[in-house]
Amino acid sequence: MHTIPQENKPRETALLVGVRWPDTPSYLVDEHLDELALLADTAGADVIGQVIQARQRADAATFIGRGKAESLVRQAAEMDYDLIIFDEELSPSQQKNLQQLAGENIKVIDRSGLILHIFARNARTREAKTQVELAQLQYLLPRLSGQWTHLERQKGGIGTRGGPGETQIEVDRRITRAKIRRLQSDLRRIAAEHRTQTSRRGSAYQIALVGYTNAGKSTLMNALSDSDVFVEDRLFATLDTTTRRLQLGEHQALISDTVGFIRKLPHDLVASFRTTLSEVREADLIIKVLDAGNPQVEEHYRTINEVLADMNVADQAELVVLNKIDAIGDTNSIDRLQRIFPSSIMISARQRLRIDTLERAIVEKIIESHVTEELRLPLKESKIISEIYDCLKVEESIYEDNSVMLRVSGPHSMVRQFRHRLENLDKQLRSQ
Q1: Long-range contacts of range 417-423, CB-CB < 8 Å, 24 or more positions apart?
Q2: Domain boundary among 367, 386, 406
Q3: Is 273 in the same domain as 343?
Q4: How far apart (Å, rounded) are the C-alpha atoms in residues 211 and 406?
């Protein structure tokens, strides 16, 4: 897969390519290319030019049509560009055809490839590196046929099954598939370790910060928990989930800062990061952080909800936070945001403005979340009984011949987890 050099190497020059579909406003195409330019800069490339092509539908062979593709390549060659970056995801065949037109001196990549490269640069922990490598290989596998075109010309003649080119492609595919299986196995072990770690958190109320990349989640994490989570004004500055303890008066919670979301986040990347993002699925409260000053704030909110839906996240309580209000000097803009997000809380995490308002809203959610419920289970399930005592407050216990009824109170999500476990246990006993 094509990569962009690290920052200690010369920065490459890039030409961006966007497409205006019939139902896409021109201003939105411009905003999307502005975001792609930020991604390219984060990856280590300087954007020198951009091209927008109007299309009714994507061309199956070259995405933008052969004539336009040839014109694009000529322009890139004349201006001595190193990269052509498409704002859409190219199919393996489209990327192969475009790369053949571009030749060896100009690299053609798409939005997904660019994002994967950024994640690979920023991965620090074993978990993040494993997740990113898996996503990269899954992205690369269907594109391998385009990596050995110089050998395909050496294929055998009539009566042969294929020459060295085909052989090398198949060898590469087998190696890649084997690596994918190994990484998937590694991630399963990491997920098991993660479940063990989170099970030790007991009955603590769990909060997850989610938001578009660079919306200020890490800064908000620091403001709420008085911690020193790494903060940088760049896209995807941090990939690993960070958890801190949060004390709000007599209430205690755990707050986690997760990897940022972005428009058209590659599906392989979302799938690979399910262990990291499990903090979101297990949370009692999701705080959706938005950059109030970004003109695409509504689209960012839709993107957050789409990624959460893709992760099958549902039913959790939520708060919408509009961050960076200190950067908005226009009261009309603030009034407009309040109309769009009527239940939102406006803050500045950097200036620590209205953090107390957010803290009060969190406490209200904590109080609302606690439930009291009765759980009945066999006495022989001593391990689960012990876990219930560790994770929940047991208000009353009534022992019978072979079972015990526990009246418990605690966060709704934790009570729900134990109820589901007991329901599954009951089903297993009935089927025996």
Answers
A1: 418/375, 418/384, 418/387, 418/388, 418/391, 418/392, 419/373, 419/375, 421/384, 422/375, 422/376, 422/377, 422/384
A2: 367
A3: yes
A4: 38
Residue 4 lies inside a defined structural domain of this protein: no
Considering the domain architecture, whether residues 176 and 308 belong to the same structural domain is answered as: no
State which of 67, 94, 121 marks the end of a domain. 121
Tens of pLDDT along 152-195?
433 333 233 344 445 666 777 888 888 888 888 887 887 777 66
Task: Give the pLDDT confidence of 339-359 residue by residue, as tens digits.
Answer: 999 999 999 999 999 999 999
What's the half-sphere exposure (Cβ side, CA atoms, 13 Å) at 366?
21
Helices (H), 311-350: 331-340
Instruction: Identify whether residues 239 and 384 lie together within a single domain.
Output: no
How many domains are there within the chain? 4
Q: Is residue 427 part of a domain?
A: yes
Instruction: Report the distance separating Cα 1 and Cα 205, nearest Å.
Output: 42
For 1, other C-beta atoms within 10 Å of its C-beta total: 14
Are both 354 and 224 inside the same structural domain? yes
- Angle subtended at Cα 3 by Cα 216 and Cα 147, rounded to the nearest 5 degrees: 140
d(C-alpha 21, C-alpha 108), whole Å: 21
- Residues with Cβ within 8 Å of 85's Cβ and at least 6 positions away in sequence, in order, are 14, 15, 16, 17, 36, 40, 45, 109, 110, 111, 114
Nearest residue to 59 via CA among 71, 69, 70 = 69
User: Which residues form the domain of 68?
Assistant: 12-121
